[in-house]
Amino acid sequence: MSALFVRAAALRSPLRAALRPRLHQLRPRSSKASKPPAAKADAVSGGAATPGAAPGPGPVPFWQRLGPVTRAVEAYGRSQRARPYATQVVGAFFIYLCADLGAQRIGGREYDAARTGRTLFIGLAAAIPYYRWFVFLSRNFNYTSRVRSIATKVAMNQLCFTPTFNTYFFGAQALLAGDGLAATAERVRDTVPTSWLNSFKVWPAVVVFSFTFLPMEYRSIFSGFIAVGWQTYLSYLNKQAELREQARMLAATSTIAVAGRGSQTAAVAP
């Protein structure tokens, strides 16, 4: 009997030795051992990207998905960075041309080409100073408080630049039309206070948006887009002032003529 047990044990030993590698391969691995190194690293770092890994592409901004509009704006930005003065002059030409044509169309009177020429001359002469002013605002009044910086830029633009530019615009319109100094001063008094007060409805918001959200090379095209409507208003206001001056001159001429006829009648009467 003991001999049988000894023989059975001798047979089981080689069998166990042969099956042990296969049993080891079939044994299920623990979840800790099966976790890949990257997943383990992510679990330890809380999902943070591994050092040296390239970040994935972020979402594309809306304004970069507008097709031809995006390409046109980007082309303007490249031109503004490469040739800022030439870009400003070309932009001013189209701004003042569209503004005067719109103002004359609103007035409903016959087209005046000389008036368009005067407006273009005034706009082209002011293009570079206008650009330099906004460059000056960009480089100055930059405080630690962003709100204080933008508020100061708005105040400087409204209190210094706007009345100066409006005086130049309306005064130059009168002088180029052949008016004398007295008539030019009257034109300025008739238009600048009204235009300055109305500018508070438009330009503070434009300046805040420009200096808050736009890079420097795109501020000109944004303000230029707004300026088309604003210059249309200024041209219309200038035309209304011209009509009022003409009406006053006609009234004065009529009064003088009536007075002259009255004096002649009195002289002829016996």
UniProtKB/TrEMBL annotation:
Record-linked InterPro entries: Mpv17_PMP22 (IPR007248)
Membrane listed as a keyword: yes
A Gene Ontology cellular-component term: mitochondrion
Membrane topology listed for this record: Multi-pass membrane protein
Primary subcellular site in the record, as a coarse category: membrane
Compositionally biased intervals (Low complexity): 33-53
Subcellular location(s) of the protein: Membrane
Entry keyword annotation includes Transmembrane: yes
Pfam hit, one: Mpv17_PMP22
Biased composition (Basic residues): 21-32
Disordered as annotated region, ranges: 21-61
Keywords: Membrane, Transmembrane, Transmembrane helix
Similarity comment text for this entry: Belongs to the peroxisomal membrane protein PXMP2/4 family.
UniProt-recorded name of the protein: Protein SYM1
